[in-house]
Amino acid sequence: MADIAIGRGKDARRAYGLDEVSIVPARRTRDLDDVDTTWEIDAFTFDVPIIASGMDSVVSPATAIALGELGSVGALNLEGLWTRHDDPDALLAGLDGLPDEAAWARLREAYAQPIRPELIRDRVREIRDGGVVSCGAVTPNRVEALADAIVAAELDLLVIQGTVVSAEHVTKGNPEPLNLKTFVRRLDLPVIVGGCSSYRAALHLMRTGAAGILVGVGAGSSSSSRRILGMGVAQATALADARAARMRHLDETGVYVHLISDGGIVTGGDIAKAIVCGADAVMAGRPFAAAAEAPGRGWHWGQAAVHADLPRGHRTPVEPVGTLREVLLGPAGDDAGGSNLVGALRRTMALTGYDSVKELQKADLVVHPR
Question: CA–CA distance from 204 to each of 200, 201, 265 (Å)?
Fold first, then answer.
């Protein structure tokens, strides 16, 4: 891809977002009944390639169970309200009716309480007792401190998630940096790590031994990292770069690493385009925050929004679209695209003639003229 001259001393690449590309129909179509949306990672198989993001406005133990029963999986924020408070539902209910700034201030106070390892155990056990895959999300700076509690809880799938995650984190205050390659291989459970948005970063994360990597920096509606930190890559380009890294890693090792598109997923069309760009699955927050059962009660916020020193995001209102079942499986009540995500993906696959998620990755794309 040709560089674009920003000035005499700096070049840049043109990057493309999911809203700038469209899928090209192939030479055949298929019946909807012939389309398979299942997705496998490690020993786990899911009916749909969608992970509910590890945000307190999206996933509680109850919604994690409900999502599992619908064929998806929800990542519980293991540093969130459910591992800091005995009754987060009551805490969130107490925000109803407060002015926005007062509610946000009270919410940030709630996040200032310490994480309790016994609550990690209890919440994971609650999800596992519901008969579904238990998935939890932690940030890189706390993953080692919480590792014993995570292992003791017998978590099924771990997501190590941050704004930007590198294979090795160096700090002057600690002579032993966090080395994800060593850490991931020490755990006896599959790990997904991210985010990243470049070929080199994706390749290094794949070499940690992770089962999957999250692709996306600053792409989500709940994040203001692109504005505050100046970082981010348009999602279609980020996925295409990570796809190239996966091909190299597969050639070198024979190991296939799953790509999960993280950020900017609003409609079924976004899911389909992310898959064509190279994703095996997507992580979504806002569509699930709009479900009737969502713990955010009509509000949505991300992990970075409650950072103690540099919040990147805010508590934003979301319009309800229906139940979790309607968000995932329909029926949709309008053409906004925020419900029946799986139905939209299945129809895209049928209309383009691809019978599986892996096959859909072979579809062609076109770029819209600016």
Answer: 6, 5, 25
For the chain, domain boundaries:
22-367
Distance (Å) of CA 55 to CA 73, 167, 235: 13, 23, 20
CATH architecture of 22-367: Alpha-Beta Barrel (3.20)
Helix (H) or strand (E) holding 24: strand 21-24
**Is the pTM of the predicted complex or chain greater than 0.70?**
yes
> Residue type for 39, please?
W
Q: Tell me what pLDDT residue 78 has.
A: 97
44-46/50-52 β-pairing = unpaired
Q: Which amino acid is at 260?
A: I
What is the pLDDT, as a whole number, of residue 103?
86
The string of DSSP letters for 229-280 reads T-----HHHHHHHHHHHHHHHHHHHS---EEEEES---SHHHHHHHHHHT-S
197, two tokens: 């948005």
What DSSP character marks residue 335?
S
* Pairing outcome for strands 44-46 and 39-41: antiparallel
State how far the Cα of 288 lies from the Cα of 12, in Å rounded to an integer. 35
Cβ pair 304, 285 in contact under 8 A: no
Tokens standing for 135? 């998935």
Rounded CA-CA distance 366/21 in Å is: 6
Question: How high is the pLDDT of residue 222?
Answer: 47
Match 């999502």 to its residue by tokens: 67
The residue with tokens 């709630």 is: 110
SS3 state at 73: strand
